[in-house]
């Protein structure tokens, strides 16, 4: 595939997104699923995208892969990947990009795997769709990658159908398929949510190790701050279609500034909360059809004042630490 030279090819950012919007134009009105998201990620870096269900984190991932169907519309002030402007790509060029330089791991592996095809067929076709290699070479690479994600007897697993495998095995194969063409960026949409804790821990370790070895960037989408805190280099916290706080992981865990981030952290079970009722953020996410003016979190916030009717600025409060809140500060 021919690549297009760009003045941004020397940029430190593999992915540079500014002002990303995904709006759904419906009869009831405009649903602003993603409303002005900006994020950047370097090669080999792991970014955790965290938020409640409905915060827009999965839709952000789908939009980067150009997998948003009508009536959804994607637009951005800047949408660059590896020096290329994604907004100028044709459907065919984007198709060549997906699964090759940019891959996605879905929450349910059965969405990725075809139940009527054997594992070897699906993996070999994934490679041959992007490269002119022999079936034997594609098969050898598939077996190698299955071993990399911790699947025992990978050559034997090639001849089975997805329904012959456990949920953990299916998810490992889905991860292996994402890794087959050595992508520069992987977007993982809560891929361990349905797995037990032991398998979850194994997959998190293997994914982190593979990203380091292959210099692959990773966006890990999750609602569980506890899981991603041990995986990601940086965290971006989303609420109602917007990023409200972003910082290096240690900075978020040790000195979170936004009241919503405080709420997410307080809801994580710890030894100190054993036997006690867990904290819940009061209220619910506002309707994306009828967003309130100003800060979207103000109706649920313990620090809210009349000033919160005005749109808060997204400001840097420490190196690489940005927050969108009028009353930001470390929780007492």
UniProtKB/TrEMBL annotation:
Gene Ontology molecular function: any one: ATP hydrolysis activity
CDD domains named among the record's database cross-references: ABC_NikE_OppD_transporters (cd03257)
Location(s), subcellular: Cell inner membrane
Keyword terms, alphabetized: ATP-binding, Cell membrane, Membrane, Nucleotide-binding, Transport
Gene Ontology BP annotations: peptide transport; transmembrane transport
Domain of life from the UniProt record: Bacteria
Residue ranges of every copy of the ABC transporter domain listed in the record: 17-265
Membrane topology: Peripheral membrane protein
Pfam families: ABC_tran, oligo_HPY
GO cellular component terms, semicolon-separated: plasma membrane
Protein name according to UniProt: Peptide/nickel transport system ATP-binding protein
């Amino acid at each position: 595939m021919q690549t297009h030279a760009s003045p941004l090819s020397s940029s430190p950012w593999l992915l540079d997104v500014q002002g990303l919007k995904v709006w759904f134009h419906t009869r009831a009105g405009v649903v602003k699923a993603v409303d002005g998201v900006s994020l950047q990620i370097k090669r080999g870096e792991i970014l955790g995208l965290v938020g409640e269900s409905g915060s827009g984190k999965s839709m952000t991932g789908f939009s980067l892969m150009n997998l948003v169907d009508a009536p959804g519309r994607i637009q951005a002030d800047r949408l660059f990947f590896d020096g290329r402007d994604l907004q100028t790509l044709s459907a065919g060029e984007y198709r060549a990009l997906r699964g090759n330089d940019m891959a996605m791991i879905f929450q349910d592996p059965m969405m990725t795997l075809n139940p009527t095809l054997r594992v070897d067929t699906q993996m070999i076709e994934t490679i041959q769709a992007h490269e002119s290699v022999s079936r034997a070479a594609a098969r050898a690479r598939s077996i190698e990658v299955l071993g990399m994600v911790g699947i025992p007897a990978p050559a034997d697993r090639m001849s089975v159908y997805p329904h012959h495998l456990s949920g953990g095995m299916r998810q490992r194969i889905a991860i292996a398929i994402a890794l087959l063409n050595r992508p520069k960026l992987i977007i993982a949409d809560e891929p361990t949510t349905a797995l037990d804790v032991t398998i979850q821990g194994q997959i998190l370790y293997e994914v982190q190790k593979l990203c380091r070895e292959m210099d692959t960037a990773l966006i890990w989408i999750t609602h569980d701050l506890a899981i991603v805190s041990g995986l990601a280099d940086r965290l971006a916290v989303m609420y109602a279609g917007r990023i409200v706080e972003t910082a290096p992981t240690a900075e978020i865990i040790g000195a979170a500034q936004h009241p919503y981030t405080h709420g997410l952290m307080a809801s994580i079970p710890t030894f100190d909360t054993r036997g006690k009722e867990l904290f819940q953020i009061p209220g619910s996410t506002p309707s994306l059809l009828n967003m309130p003016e100003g800060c979207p979190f103000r109706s649920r916030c313990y620090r809210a004042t009349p000033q919160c009717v005005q749109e808060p600025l997204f400001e840097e409060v420490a190196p690489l630490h940005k927050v969108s809140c009028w009353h930001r500060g470390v929780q007492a």
